[in-house]
Amino acid sequence: MTRVSTSIRIDADLKQAASKQLASMGLSMNTYLNMALRQLVLQQAVPFESDEPSWVPNEETEKALVLARAEELGLIPDNAPAFDDPKRAIRYLNDEQ
To answer: According to the lineage, what is the superkingdom (predicted)?
Structure first.
């Protein structure tokens, strides 16, 4: 396996804190980054959870979420149609077009 050098730019305080934490575990920054990259390739996904949200809803989605939560809490009536009979639901959907 051929090894190559790479460089990355990170915040100095983050590097210092991470290096200190890794050293306490007997790991170097290089070893940790190699481990993380190997897991990325094996799992085909980022090998850890981020504390930051993976998505931020747009305004329309945010309104829908607030509305759904208000209906769930009984703060506003749930005006969504409900059906006991699938044929009535299909008729309703066809009439909406």
So the answer is: Bacteria
- Neighbouring CB atoms inside 10 A of 46's CB total 11
pLDDT at 97 over 70: no
Q: Are residues 63 and 83 in the same domain?
A: yes
Q: Would you state the structure tokens that stand for residue 69, as one six-digit string? A: 């939560």
The span from the CA of 66 to the CA of 13, in Å, is: 38
CB 30 within 8 A of CB 38: no
Residue 53 has pLDDT above 80, yes or no: no
Buried b (16+ CB within 10 A) or exposed e, 65-83: eeeeeeeeeeeeeeeeeee
Question: Both 7 and 39 in a single domain?
Answer: yes
Question: Do 5 and 47 fall into the same domain?
Answer: yes
Name the residue range of residue 68's domain: 59-95
Judge contact between 13 and 23, C-beta under 8 A: no
Q: What is the mean pLDDT of residues 49-77?
A: 87
